[in-house]
Amino acid sequence: MMCSGEGLLASPINEVLGAHRDTILKSSRKSIGPAITALAESGLRSAEVTLEIWRDKDMWYRASDDKFYRVEGDDVFDLASGQRIATFVKDEYKQIKPNSGVRAIISSALVGFHLNSTDRDKRLAAIKSIQRNPKPEYLLTLKASIAEESDAYLLDIKSQLLQILTIQYGTTPQNRIAAIEAVSRSLSLDIRAALNPILATELRLGDAIPEGANLVRILTPGTDGFPVKTAYDMLVKQKLATPIPTKAEVLTALEDNIDAARVGDVPVAQLFDPEKRLEAYEVLQKQGLAPKRPSEAEVLSAVNSYIFYEQYLEENAAVTEAAKKALRSIETKVNLFRTVDLGLDALSLASIYFLAAIGLAITFGVMGVINMAHGEFIMMGAYTGYVIQQIIPDHTISIIVAVPVAFVVTFGAGVAMERLVIRWLYNRPLETLLATFGISIALQQIAKNIFGTQARPLTSPEWLGGSWVINDVVSISYIRIAIFAMALLFFAVFLFIIKRSRLGLETRAVTQNPAMASAMGINPDRVNMLTFGLGSGVAGIAGVAIGLFAKVTSEMGNDYIVQSFMSVVVGGVGNIWGALAGATLVGFMQKGIEWFNPSNTLAAQTYMILFVIIFIQFRPRGIIALKGRAAGD
Amino acid sequence: MTASHYRRNALIFVLILSLFTVLVSALSAGAGSDVIATSFIKTLGKTLCLALVAIAMDLIWGYAGILSLGHFAFFALGGYMIGMWLMYERTKDIVTQSLNQATIPPTDQEIIDGIGTQIFGVVGSNEFPVIWMFADSLIAQALLVILVPALLAYLFGWFAFRSRVTGVYLSILTQAFTLALSLYLFQNESGLRGNNGLSGLQNLPYVDANQDLVSLWFFWASAVALGLGYLGASYVVSGKFGSVMRAIRDNEARVRFLGYKVETYKLAVFVGTAIIAAIAGALYYPQAGIVNPAEMAPIASIYLAVWVAIGGRGRLYGSVIGAIIVSLLSTWFTGGQAPDLSFGVFTLKWVDWWQVLLGVSFVLVTLYAPKGIGGLFDLLSRRGPSS
């Protein structure tokens, strides 16, 4: 009895519901508004729960005591306290069934409650829901909820959201301007999206400019990219002028009125002349057989009798002015960060080119051997990585294994190539070019025969996925950072090998004067073989790295060979610093040109190559040219 | 080799070429016989054009020692220039015919708009770019076949030779130039239909002849061009100019010290061979029917070097033999006509392995037979060339 007794007491929530009993029972989207608002603004603790119960169709009405209850299974509960008060008897209760429209209104009312929920996920969901579907009524609730927000991240996005809502729905222009000024340092895409609609404009026309209109500019037909034709079309659209018949309409009118091979007294055979066509149309028009075609003077006078102007949709000039200013300042900042982003892109492209070119810097730069199959060594390394991933499924381990294996495979291939082909051609560089080219097409075709023409994936480990997001404008993927680090590492290692190790010393000796080196007890054959193998092995490792972000195909070498050669030639043949400088220049140039014309990477490559050709004119020996005897010829 | 040798060789060459042309013509479908199919006539005609561009390659590489990896770009450009006229006129023919069926005769502008829509519809445009302004005139386009590649070659050569870029650097530079050109043409904005290229070139506008006959005409034209090209090249290399070319190849610095303007000679050879290549291309692509930017990919120019190397550079007939043998073999092997070799567990499909064979044989020729197939003639005549 205790339980049911409490239900009989008039709880405040039921008073609110009772006041709107009829509309609740009717449950129509059009009329339900006041009931939900009353509930939401009642300030009762149980209002949130009640709204949820209502939305979930668990609210029932008992006519005998004119009250609302929650029903679950066979039990009836009090709305406010949640205590069980009676056993469910079907005939006594009537279920409230809100339709989807009503449920949507309830949900949006609930958002306000959820903003203050103790559950962080609920608060986040509520914020997201407002972001998706901003409404003026959230403004106050959101503002109130900020004071109580404890989570720093949520506080951040709530404040930003409040700014956006204030910009859009602020009650006074002062409020809105203040909000606009507050966000003028932000880079967020949402802020920019909120500011742009304020600056939306519309072309209008009239006899005079309305008083107090927030004007952008007055347009003079025939100037400012506002042709007379556009102005006249506007008039036609507003039914203020007769349309000009299109060429096709003129043609149809002429075709329809052919009479004994003549149209309006002009022979059909002469109608290939546009002048004659108009002449014939004029006659038809006079006979009333075709709609009127306004003359140019008529068009002009019609257009000139109106004033055309562009107007902001937003009425308050101060607000648009502030938005313009804010957008300008945001634009400046965004451009600054875009430049940073572009720099990062260019840096990562440069490191890719450097990785591709470093092997070449050794074989071509130091030894002077043109190896057209260098790209195929990159391809070989990438396929080695692919095969290893087929054997070892774990991506991290397989990449760790693939790097040395790729080195060994391409080192072997390089040594074999040097022994079998290149050493016979040391004095005939042009023939080296051709012979290695023969090897290149043979290797490409063999890879195609083994792996097929379809691109093979080389999957990067989980921890290399994703990217490092600095802000809404600047971000860089981890894999590019890894490649940059790898390029730096390679650079250090090779600098060490060439400058500090025995092999490096011998290589430089053999390159500069093979006969003298030989006289000093160095075996030039062995040194050449090892150096060439080393250069090829590096290409293999570069192949694994490149395969991680590019498709592995039998033709992937072609994509890098020309750029690699250019990096080496531009940078300066004969040392690793040159390759670094060259790759940096080529990478930055390409990205820089892409920046001017982002939609067209083909054009960027074209102009980059032209630049290189011209660059060679002024520094034929590259950026870092060897001097003295080492330069050779 | 003395001038008289060149004269004798040229005579033999023209004789063989004439005999070959007459024989093929007599057996062709165009002459009423069905021994040689029309498609094969086209293949032969194209092969003759390739032999002509191989002569150009031999002049610049075999005689002047400049390994240009860009001559196939000039070849394709020649095709583009003549292709513009062929495509424009044929489209104009079709558009005029279809518009003339309307009750009211079309205006000139309507015809031009119709042609524009037909040609540039695939790249989402219907307006003629400026470079098509002469497309209506055969004479102008035929002149452009020569002028455009010549101008490009002149500009590139002037830059490259002036700064004394030589050897492999020059080769890489020419390759980059080719790549740039092909990438440029791949763009729709280039005004030459992007990667679609120009197509339908096998149809001669305003000529009411079937393909049997048209292909025969082109075969003759190719044979005449090859004959004239060979005679011209023969004349050049047998004279003083040829001697200077070979001298530059063998020791550029010494020639310069002797007072010759090496750069001028090189530039002349570069431009001249570019023109020969362009003319060969202008005859080749109407027989192929289509020209697109992929044709001038750097690899094509390298194949050109392969033909000349296999045929034997430094002798004109060598390059012709190399081009004919390798390109015909390529057609045969990649066309799937060659019988597969079966080794029990493994069947060797020539379509897949021909490239490998070509690559390897190329390495072998470079290593063991630098004189190429032409070297066989030396063995036969027991007389080494003095060139």
Question: Could you characterize what this model shows?
Answer:
The complex is a heterodimer of chains A (633) and B (387). Helices cover 62% and strands 7% of the residues of chain A. Chain A is of the alpha+beta class. Chain A has four domains: 2-104, no CATH class; 116-199; 201-312, no CATH class; 334-565, no CATH class. Chain A has 26 helices and twelve strands. In chain A, helix 9 (152-169) crosses helix 10 (173-183), helix 12 (228-237) packs across helix 15 (296-304) and helix 20 packs across helix 21. In chain A, the strands form four sheets. Chain A has a five-stranded antiparallel sheet with strand order 4-3-2-1-5. A three-stranded antiparallel sheet of chain A has the order 6-10-7, covered by helices on one side. Chain A has a two-stranded antiparallel sheet with strand order 8-9. With 387 residues, chain B is mainly alpha-helical. Chain B has one domain (3-297). Chain B has 14 helices and four strands. Chain B has helices at 3-27, 38-63, 71-100, 108-120, 138-162, 167-186, 211-238, 240-250, 252-257, 262-288, 298-311, 316-334, 350-368, 374-381, and strands at 198-199, 290-291, 341-343, 346-348. The radius of gyration of chain B is 22 Å and the shape is globular. The model of chain B has no long low-confidence stretch (mean pLDDT 88). The interface between A and B is large, with 53 and 52 residues.
- Structurally, how many domains make up the residues of chain A? 4
- Tell me the number of helical segments of chain A per DSSP (H or I, 4 or more residues long): 26
Spans of chain B with pLDDT under 50 lasting ≥5 residues? none
Rg calculated over all Cα atoms of chain A:
39 Å
Using the alpha-carbon principal axes, give the shape of chain B: globular
Number of helical stretches of at least 4 residues of chain B: 14
Task: Enumerate the strands of the largest sheet of chain A in spatial order, edge to edge or round the barrel.
Answer: 4-3-2-1-5
Q: Give the largest interface.
A: A-B, 53 and 52 residues
The main β sheet of chain B shows up as:
2 strands, antiparallel
State the total count of DSSP E strands of chain B. Answer: 4
What is the H/E string of chain B?
HHHHHHEHHHHEHHEEHH
Largest sheet of chain A: 5 strands, antiparallel
Q: Number of domains in the coordinates of chain B?
A: 1
N→C terminal distance of chain B: 6 Å
As laid out across the biggest beta sheet of chain B, the strand order is 1-2
Number-wise, the strands of chain A total 12
Give helix % range of chain A. 55-70%
- Determine the strand fraction of chain A and express it as a percent band: 5-15%
